Amino acid sequence: MVRIVLSTAPMFVCGFWFLALVTDVLHYNRAKLTLAVFMLVATLHLFCQAAYCSLEYDLTRRIDPVYVFTCLAVFPLYYLYVKTLTDPEGITLRSLWVLLPAILSSLVSFVLYRFMPVEETNAFVHQVLYRENGDYVFSMAGQLQKINTLFVKIALPCEIVPVFLYGFKRIRAYNAQVAEYYSNQEGKAIDVSRWFLFAFIITSALCAIFNAIGRHTFIQPVEMLFIPSGLYVLMLFPLGFAGFRQEFMITDLLRDESREESTFEAMPENFSEKQFKQNLFLLIGKEEIYTKPNLRITDVAVRLGCSRNYLSRFLNQKLQTNFSDFINKFRVEHAKRLLSLTSEMRITSAQIVDAAGFASESSFYRIFKSIEGKSPKAWKSTHLQQN
Questions:
Q1: What is the pTM of this model?
Q2: Could you give the domains of the chain?
């Protein structure tokens, strides 16, 4: 009973997120559809793992081609999910080549099993997959099946590195676009600093390690299953949670940009960068338009009489910042003024969030700490001690 629970727990976690994603009709988009496919393939993969760890020899033999496919398809599918979030083209036929190793290897496995008699397939399961002692002499088909199994073991870690590198590169570029347009990134940017990237890295490392040392290592004693089962559950759940919450994608950003593009394409002939900078700080600092939670770069560009692209370049090149960070610095200064009030004039975090223009309390705490290096409470305590 313990073996069954431990071997099937990760499968049920993935299955849960698959059902949650396909039934979330109110927030349905192509990214969630891709993530649902990823979770479905991961569920099938973990089903194969559960059958293996439960010592279901006959079932393991029958579904081994499925295991081969899911083993090599799960990480490319996660990359395709990131691509749908960050690339306006989404998934194209050209991008599906990343699934080619999984498709070809699983087809080879399926065909070779058809050429192997039942006695040989049983010997293959026991001697090769479970690493049990035996002296069966394999045919050419059996030898090729062993080579294919070795290929899967080598190909999996080779997939992880490019998937991580190219996926992370896409996420960083996407987040930079979001930061250039929105002052509040909550619900829009992909949070690679916490669960999203951390869970992906750990899950990738676990798959590579378990694949390298072999699945058979964790079969006996049964307590050994606590290691892969517990780690997979802890890592897969936040992957599903982060994806389920991520409703914003690149097409939403492009739609907002197209709707609100400034009509100004050039600056006046008597334009002065010094005067432009003064006007910018006057608009943001004196008029406090940063207190508008949904402030966008187009709102500021229109007020300044310039194009969105020019304002973005000015912030990047002259002030070495992006629009979101620029606005949030004013919001943090506003919050610090409110936190500096005497203890008799109590003000809540919710009031600070509303007054300074933060999207939520969680974003207020995160942004404040990233700029000041300490939480609002710690900053206030230090300020009161110094004064």
A1: 0.82
A2: 2-255 (1.20.1070), 260-386 (1.10.10.60)
